[in-house]
Amino acid sequence: MTFEGKIIPEITFMYREGDEKPEEGGCPIGGIWKPTTTDDIFKGKRVIVFSLPGAYTPTCSTYQLPGFEEMYDDFKSKGIDEIYCSSVNDGFVMNAWADYIGINNVKLIPDGNGELAASCGMLIDMSVVGFGKRSRRFAMVVNDGVVEKTFVEPESTEDNPDPYGESSPENILKNL
To answer: Is residue 141 a part of any domain in this protein?
Structure first.
């Protein structure tokens, strides 16, 4: 499946900014919602967006997100302006996940309503494992809002329930 040449539609993502962890512990609070559009993210830039089934999940947390973080400078040297990780999770979850893993360079997109995944034909039903609607694992190079190249994982099978390789940072770097 490919969606190369597709223009990413106008979508507004609800980011969280300024939340602080209370001294007595607990979840970060006190911030604001910051609507951020696809134009804010893609306009005038060549970026990589990789999308995955969920924050805090094993492959995503162990290999994919940390791999892109570690290889950030390698991608920059190949003409990539930014790297974004998208997941059908809210801004609170995405911020907590980035903090937990120690992400400083990759920017996270809270695709809470699944609009980005759906616009690429990548929204799938993962209700069988209690996830509901989520993003299929894929990546794309987006140049000024137009999809230049795609990397889509094959369908899940009983023998390989979480295919991973096509959208890995190593594979994308090799294909730039």
So the answer is: yes
